[in-house]
Each structure stands twice: as C-alpha cells, then as structure tokens.
C-alpha cells in the first residue's frame, strides 16, 4: 500500500490574513511539501497539470525534474497529466526523460480534464474529450513499447517510422494510472491495458465512485490481467489533522468554508457526507479504513494537504502528521485486513523484475549507422520485437 500527498497548485487569499502567495512562492512551497513528504517516509508526491489561473503547475515535468534532484526515495507522479490537450508524442518524450532523471521514481496519472476554456487554447474541442483521451493514450502506449511506430488517427498528423527518444529507462515504461470521475470509457481503457485506475473521490458523496471502480475491476479481470480483487486501484482525498478533533475542525473551517469551491458549505456536513477527513490522527485513520471497507483492497491513497490557501507552515505540519502518526498505523491496519493475493502498486523495480527476471535489462543504444528510421526497421543495435497493442476509441 502506497501513501502520499498530491497538489493542484492552487492560489487563493488566506481568509484569516488576506495574504495571497505569489506564483513564485507557491512553486517553492510545492517543492517544500515534496521534500518534507520524502523526509517523513511517504511513498508518493503527485503534481496536477493546470493551464488556467489560479493554478500554477502548467509544466509538471519541469517541476518534478527539480524535485527528483532534491529528494531520495519518494515516487513522483501526476494528478493529472492531460491526455487531451497534450501531444502524445511530446508526452512520451518528456516523461521518458523524467523517468531517467528520477532514476525510475516515476509513474503518472492520465486523464482528459474538464476545464472547458483550456481545450481551445490548445486547438482542441472538449466535445471530443473522451475520444481524444482514448486515441492519444493508445499512441502513447505504443510509443513507449515499440522502437518504430507507424500510426494514423483522427486527431494528429500520421507517424511513419517514428522513434520516440529517449526510450524508457531499462526499456520499461512508467506505470500509468487512469484518473476519472465520471467516464466508464476511461475505466475500460485502464482495464484493457492492465493499468491502474484512480478515483479522486474528494468532492463526491461517500462511495459515489464505487460503481466506476467496480466496473474497472470487472473489466480488468475480463481482459485477463488477474482477478477483480487484484486490479490496481488508487483513491484520492483531503485531510486535515490536529492532536484534538475540535482543534482540527476549528483550524480548517475558515479555509474550507471560504474557498470558492466550498463556499456556502458547512464543514461538518461535508465531513459526514464525503471522504474529507478532518480530526485527530485516530479519526483520520478510522475514516480511511472505511475506504478499504467500501471500495475493497486498494494500492494507493493520496491526500491533498496544501491547498485552499493554507499557510505553508500548516501544510508542512500536515505532511509531518501524516507521515509520523497516521500512515504508520494505516500501513499496519490495512495490511492486516487485506485479502491474500492482493498485489502491491507497481514500481519501476517490480516492473523490471517482472519483465527480465534475473537477466540484465535492455539498455537501448542508437545504431550509429542509421541516420533515420523511415524504413520501418529499428534504429537500435539491440532491438527487441515490437509489442503491438490496439485499443478501440469508440464503444
């Protein structure tokens, strides 16, 4: 079981002081949160991709590349990488490069995004969002597994004899999670490839996304990747912790109830109706254990801890409390309740071991005698047979 934190890099005025972080301060604060998460032994730091104010993470690979250099153990991920408004060729290159820079400490969550104005900024049509997400991921999947790709689709120029560089580290692509809040098509795609499925149920009623998770599990088994119980599931959430329950509620209330998304909501009502976890360490532990009861065994739990204009000192304290008082107990309790045979979340090391066993991983080396790869043959000296995959973009 992996535990971590994620951020969307939002900026808003502090309701108690009126102070608003600058973009420069917010970026540095996200780095501080990632470093503290690494220091206290959390497993994952994930960064969202946004291109519209009041969010600042428009280039996740740039920021995560820096974080890779100042952390030691934590897995770097995204929450989310947009499969719709990004070119899958550029995604293949950027995230393979980041995988190398991070020494394999990388996976990513892909999704379609639902911010309407962003699509035309990148020449896309939100009405084609699902079809874009499906087609683009199909291409990304192939680019990471085939040295030479010939491809033609609806939404970008065709490729002929194309090689994405660098090749993935050890010729093993980063593990991919598919994030969705309402699309059975995305759950189907995750199941088809045997990828992970991430349900960020932070704003929804309790267990609202269970039908979507159950669909993914059923289709994961249908496609022969394992039993439904062995499917790779992640959940999101929001937490705020204090030693005493009422102190947590009192401290978090002004930030929650004055934030634009939640304005007009009563914190206690949302605590009862949704997965938001506010209280003492034991109360947060108890709430998260209900996720395991409701969704079944799962592999990754991420918490949003630095948004809603929380001061950075408070956010860092939240990371500390998660890492020292909540997660150690959850690791033990959830493991004890877990059914036999449930796999861990894939890591680069486990994927390398699954592919090569005791053999040395392939290390692609360009062939100096090849100036191009338009002939359709591999531009590498030590090519493996291509792994072909196709996925329907319509259901």
| CATH fourth-tier homologous superfamily | Luciferase-like domain
Number of domains: 1
List the total number of helices. Answer: 12
Order of helices and strands: EHEHEEHEHHEEEHEHEEHHEHEHH
Structural description of this entry:
This protein has 395 residues and is of the alpha/beta class. It has one domain: Luciferase-like domain (TIM Barrel, Alpha-Beta Barrel). Helices cover 39% and strands 13% of the residues. It has 12 helices and 13 strands. Strands 3-2-1-13-10-9-8-5-4 form a 9-stranded parallel sheet, with helices on one face. Strands 6-7 form a two-stranded antiparallel ribbon. Helix 3 links the parallel strand 4 and strand 5. Helix 1 crosses helix 2 and helix 1 packs parallel to helix 11. It is globular and about 70 Å long. The C terminus is likely disordered.
